[in-house]
Amino acid sequence: MNKLILNLGFVLLFLNTMMGLLLSNYASFNWMAADAVILINVGLTYEVSRSNRRDGFKLSLSMLYSFLTLVMLLLAILSPSRLQDNYYLIGIVVILFIEFALWAVTGRMRMINSNNK
């Protein structure tokens, strides 16, 4: 599963970068933001899949991260090509915070459950 996540992430990253280089109306800011979203989410999903979390947490986080990755990719592609007053970018940062918080909470749940036994 880990190799599949990394290979799929590499393919998505390659396709997005090629589209960014080949399409003139795909702004550099947007394809670099989409590449960053892909890299971060592939890293998070890979970390979840190789962690010692319970299978239910792994499955639900992987599915949630996949859905949120699609949402973040849409935000990155549709965002204006500027940093200032970019609400799409703020949405990406908020979703990233939620993903990292869920990752941390599920890791903490593992420690709480093991201490109660």
Question: Could you characterize what this model shows?
Answer:
- This protein has 117 residues and is mainly alpha-helical.
- 83% of the residues lie in helices and 0% in strands.
- The protein has one domain.
- Helix 1 (2-22) packs antiparallel against helix 2 (28-50) and helix 3 (55-78) runs antiparallel to helix 4.
- The longest helix has 29 residues, at 87-115.
- Euclidean distance between termini CA atoms: 30 Å
The proportion of strand residues reads under 5%
Let me know the largest β-sheet.
Answer: none
SSE order, one letter for each helix or strand: HHHH
The mean pLDDT is 89
CA-atom Rg in angstroms: 16 Å
* Percent of residues in helices: over 70%
* Tally of discrete structural domains: 1
Regions with little confidence, pLDDT below 50 for 5+ residues: none
SS element count, helices = 4
Strand segment tally: 0
Topology record:
Blueprint lengths: L1 H21 L5 H23 L4 H24 L8 H29 L2
Provide a compact summary of the structure.
This protein is an all-alpha fold. The protein has helices at residues 2-22, 28-50, 55-78, 87-115.
